[in-house]
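Curious: why these numbers?
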Amino acid sequence: MDDHYRTLGVAPTADDAVIRAVYVELMKRFHPDRNASDETLRRSQAINEAYAVIGDPRRRAAYDEERAGLQ
């Protein structure tokens, strides 16, 4: 399982505003339109995937529950 918190560089206790701010900053830095390398593309995809999960309250709750079950 991917660690979406690590991908975004935020703590699991981070609130929604912090997560959104970090996501915006990361996408400014790693958006494929700014740098067309394969690594940037992979990184931006991982950032988008992580934000899609932990940026949505229902998906985040399910993800956190699943993470807790793996520990």
The longest helix spans residues 38-54. The mean pLDDT is 94. The chain is about 70% helix and 0% strand.
